[in-house]
Design goal:
The complex is a heterodimer of chains A (150) and B (222). Chain A has 150 residues and is an alpha/beta fold. Helix content of chain A is 38%, strand content 18%. The relative contact order of chain A is 0.13. The mean pLDDT of chain B is 88. Classes of the chains: A alpha/beta (150), B alpha/beta (222).
Chain lengths: 150, 222
């Protein structure tokens, strides 16, 4: 599988290492060369330095042939814009964006961008742990509960 | 009209001021507390603190009755999400987004933003006009850009000064529709003689625009 990852933070670096260890073709986009240290020595994929919202930079990653695009920067809006460019402009079949704001995560999931919301997943999981309940699935945790609407 | 402006940097500030002056109802949303405090001294209740990409804030702002939402923060990605949320959640009839990277213009349009404004592009086009022609100014485009309306500003150095319109080597698909002379609009006829400081308004097909420019072009200085 060919996968393009935007952002070499903790999640981006870990995902890049996991996928490249499985033999997939990984290309990372990152501004800051210091962040690349997180990749360690075994990462075999490619790294493109630049702005992940810039179509020229995205083309350099081979996004036109990518099977999957994942936006994992610190900025929700940056991830949502990059994901929409990947989907609408480059027709990447599978597009995933990390979005920390639960409301925005749901808004864009309803519009067809697969969003992952750590704050939702983490809080729901901790609540189940607090009640000593059996843990649910990540899919269930990733959905906006009624208590958080508004 | 009720206009919500998100982002109170220089662009948002002067836009709010101008719209208020024109009698519109304006709400200026800014996330930075110090900037808000500063602006409240001048604008009072017109300023609201918060993030325009949060649905809760936009609901509080009354986005559902806004005629226009203008997203003019310094970040293109924020302006995109602000505009999309305004459209999807509050059915705002018109969204205008400021764009910093002019190449984002077409992706914003593809993603449903009604209008984009790129100061980089505006300044670039002004400079391009300066360099290329000096005096032929595109005013508007008709028929999806196939026909242009241009304004040619004549100077004493224009080669057409003292000539009759019938003697100009105009391309066949160019038509001079109006001459503005000392603030009077005149209907031109074949024997009208061109004078310095005339504004010549012409309709021309896109492919003949260059030929039209050549007719009016000043002699290049060696």
């Amino acid at each position: 599988m060919r996968i393009v990852i935007l952002g070499c933070g903790r999640t981006g670096a870990a995902l890049a290492r996991l996928m490249s260890a499985e033999g997939h073709k990984v290309t990372l986009i990152e501004w800051n060369s210091d962040s690349l240290e997180r990749l360690g020595g075994k990462f075999t994929g490619a790294v493109i330095t630049g702005n992940g919202l810039d179509e020229d930079v995205l083309k350099k990653t081979g996004i036109e042939q990518a099977d999957m695009f994942v936006a994992l920067t610190e900025g929700d809006n940056r991830n949502l814009m990059a994901a929409q460019i990947a989907r609408e402009r480059f027709h990447v079949p599978k597009v995933i964006a990390k979005v920390n704001d639960p409301i925005r995560a749901e808004a864009y999931r309803n519009r067809g961008i697969y969003t992952i919301c750590y704050s939702l997943i983490g809080s729901a999981m901790i609540r189940d742990l607090a009640h000593d309940r059996p843990l649910g699935s990540v899919e269930e945790y990733n959905v906006l509960p009624p208590e958080l609407k508004d | 009209m009720y206009i919500i402006i998100v982002g109170a940097g220089n662009v948002g500030y002067y836009l709010a001021k101008t719209l208020l002056g024109a009698g519109h109802e304006v709400l200026l949303i800014e996330r930075d507390k110090r900037r808000c405090d500063l602006l409240r001294d001048e604008f009072g209740e017109v300023v609201m603190r918060g993030r325009g990409d949060e649905i809760r804030i936009m609901r509080e702002a009354g986005a559902d009755r806004a005629d226009i939402v203008v997203a003019c923060t310094g970040d293109d990605e924020d302006n995109l999400i602000i505009s999309q949320i305004a459209k999807w959640y509050f059915n705002v009839p018109r969204t205008v987004a400021r764009i910093n990277d002019p190449r984002n213009e077409s992706i914003f349009q593809q993603l449903g933003i009604d209008a984009t404004v790129s100061s980089t592009n505006i300044i670039y086009h002004l400079i391009e006009q300066e360099i290329e022609t000096g005096e032929v100014i595109p005013l508007a485009a008709l028929k999806r850009g196939h026909i242009e309306i241009v304004d040619v500003e004549l100077t004493t150095r224009s080669p057409v000064i003292g000539k009759r319109i019938r003697d100009l080597p105009l391309p066949p698909d160019a038509l001079i529709v109006c001459i503005i002379r000392q603030d009077n609009a005149m209907l031109p006829h074949a024997d009208t003689v061109l004078e310095p400081d005339d504004s010549v308004i012409a309709l021309v097909s896109a492919q003949s625009e260059r030929l039209l420019r050549q007719v009016f072009a000043e002699e290049q200085e060696e």
